[in-house]
Amino acid sequence: MNGHTTSPSAMELAHVNIMKRQLEAGEVVSVMSIRYSRGIEVVGYAKAAGMNGVLIDLEHSSIDLDQCAQFTMAALAHAITPVVRVPSLASSFVGRVLDGGAQAVIIPHVRGPKGALESSRAAKFYPDGDRSAIGGLSALQYGAFPTIEANKAVNANVMCIIMIETLEALDSLEQIAATPHVDVLLIGTNDLTACYGVPGQHDDPRITEAYRKVIEACRRTGKALGIGGLYARQDLIDKFIKMADGVGRFVMCGSDQDYVLEGANRTAKWLRGYNL
Questions:
Q1: For 181, how many CA atoms within 13 A lie in the half-sphere containing its CB?
Q2: How far apart are CA 35 and CA 69, in angstroms?
Q3: Smallest Cα–Cα separation from 221: which of 183, 258, 195, 194?
Q4: Counting beta carbons within 10 angstroms of the beta carbon of residue 1, is it exposed (0 to 12), middle (13 to 18) or buried (19 or more)?
Q5: What is the C-alpha R_g of the chain?
Q6: Roughly what angle, to the nearest 10 degrees, separates helices 91-99 and 113-122?
Q7: What gap in Å lies between CA 30 and CA 85, rounded to an integer?
Q8: For the chain (length 276 residues), average pLDDT per consecutive 10?
Q9: Residue 212 and residue 234 in contact, taking contact as beta carbons nearer than 8 Å
């Protein structure tokens, strides 16, 4: 023995994206959306509840990038997956939320293969994409490594999630699903009902048909299925989970607001009963 120790590699220090591994194994994973909370304690609550990850929703909230980074780093510390839905493909969002520690980025409003490819490349460093290089990342526990080694370690633990929420996206489904380095095809069920002219009517047979098409595309291309906008319809979530048996399934499970209101409503209803 010469007394020298070998420093860990970037891959060894990288925070493992456990959710990515679960989806690749065909499992069902859950994420709780954060829209209204501002304290990082909510991430711990999600962990305590058994959620696989948290979804910091920058598209439908006033959360800024600094607060987003606090949530993502808290998720890494709790060993659950930090997912961020950005409002657009702009590099001012995608690269910065990933620099802040996000392990998955959801890109909304993708309408065709060009947008899907731009999304996947925005989420990955060279050689898999065009993400701008930066060192000292929380994803690598702030270690310093040769650029290509760091790039490969980070890329291996980042997911790109494409939203399928328009009729144009459904028409281009095969090309979108075939896009390299896209991990999940997430159906935005509410927006899709609006595109069909039946907003909020989740039982419309065209919604089930859309899920069938996306599930088949996922099977052919090795992608995971994402189920969004159905928190209040456990029956439909059950249905689509079973339809996609064997495929990784990413389920959006409601938001912090949903859970607070549910608990408060339940307690208030119980106590109002004494006045009847």
A1: 22
A2: 14
A3: 183
A4: exposed
A5: 20
A6: 40
A7: 15
A8: 71 96 98 97 97 97 96 97 94 92 97 96 96 92 93 97 97 97 98 97 98 98 97 96 98 95 96 95
A9: no
- Omega prior to 127 cis, within 30 of 0: yes
- CB burial of residue 20 (10 Å; 0-12, 13-18, 19+): buried
Q: Which long-range contacts (CB under 8 A, 24 or more apart) does 153-157 make?
A: 153/9, 153/10, 153/11, 153/13, 153/14, 154/10, 154/14, 154/125, 155/124, 155/125, 155/128, 155/129, 156/11, 156/14, 156/17, 157/14, 157/15, 157/16, 157/17, 157/20, 157/103
Fill in the amino acid letter for 213: K
Check residue 4 and give its pLDDT.
Answer: 55
3-state secondary structure the chain: CCCCCCCCCHHHHCCCCHHHHHHHCCCEEEEEEECCCCCCHHHHHHHHHCCCEEEEECCCCCCCHHHHHHHHHHHHHCCCEEEEECCCCCHHHHHHHHHCCCCEEEECCCCCHHHHHHHHHHCCCCCCCCCCCCCCCHHHCCCCCCHHHHHHHHHCCCEEEEEECCHHHHHCHHHHHCCCCCCEEEEEHHHHHHHCCCCCCCCCHHHHHHHHHHHHHHHHHCCEEEEECCCCCHHHHHHHHHHCCCCCEEEEEEEHHHHHHHHHHHHHHHHHHHHC
The token pair at 37 is 């909370």
Residue keyed to tokens 């980070």: 154
